[in-house]
Write a structure and sequence with these properties.
mainly alpha; single chain
Length: about 220
């Protein structure tokens, strides 16, 4: 019973697609799309931590994240900003920083050093302007430290959605909590590379649709 990792990934992918469809195609009229879309990121962070503790090769995992962070950057900038070479980074950079942080934390058990590494990672995400920024790193840290305490992790992750302030659209991310609580620890069918390819591909498709629907110049250089 419950929900396996495969099913969780699909919930995250579908809600992310809904979110991006609203943001890219409907702009200020994307309210319900963005609310539903807030479910995706907490699930992706949860699955990142699950993947970290189960992977046989964390270096390859990080290399995969780095590769698709680079591949996805121009589609991300085009879809959301109609510009390229601007100082914002897609969510793969956030996940990559989180993965690298967990790797370092596993190698260094000194509490003071760990606190310094967490703060450094949060600062790095903030300075790089990655999607979800330092708050995204904090959510990964929550799932990492409470990996063996599901109830606490889900509760704290639910509270994380309110760090953006009461009434913020991210508050709707609390709806991810029931799905995380139902996770049964099973992987389910493999779909290792689907999300990696889907992320830049769907952004490019939405960008093209947006150009067709709304017209205007294709993109600006910066």
């Amino acid at each position: 019973m419950g929900i396996n990792a495969f099913q969780l990934k699909w919930i995250a992918i579908i809600t992310m697609l809904i979110d991006h469809t609203g943001a890219i195609l409907y702009g200020d009229n994307s309210g319900i799309f963005r609310m539903i879309g807030r479910i995706a990121f907490p699930i992706f962070c949860f699955l990142l931590v699950e993947g970290f503790f189960h992977t046989k090769d964390v270096h390859r995992y990080m290399l995969r994240l780095a590769l698709f962070a680079l591949v996805s950057e121009i589609p991300y900038e085009l879809a959301f900003y109609r510009r390229i070479f601007i100082p914002v980074q897609n969510v793969f950079f956030t996940l990559l920083i989180g993965m690298a942080l967990m790797y370092v934390l596993e190698k260094n058990k000194n509490i003071a050093l760990q606190a310094a590494y967490v703060l450094l990672a949060m600062w790095g995400a903030y300075m790089l302007r990655t999607d979800y920024g330092y708050r995204g790193i904090l959510l990964i840290v929550i799932f990492y430290y409470f990996y063996k305490h599901r109830a606490a992790a889900v509760t704290l992750a639910a509270g994380w959605n309110f760090l953006y302030g009461l009434g913020a659209v991210q508050n709707w991310g609390v709806l991810a909590s029931p799905f995380l609580a139902l996770y049964n620890g099973e992987r389910g069918p493999k779909m290792r590379y689907f999300f990696y390819v889907f992320y830049p591909a769907h952004l490019l498709i939405l960008y093209v649709i947006d150009m067709y629907m709304n017209g205007g110049r294709a993109f600006y250089i910066y």
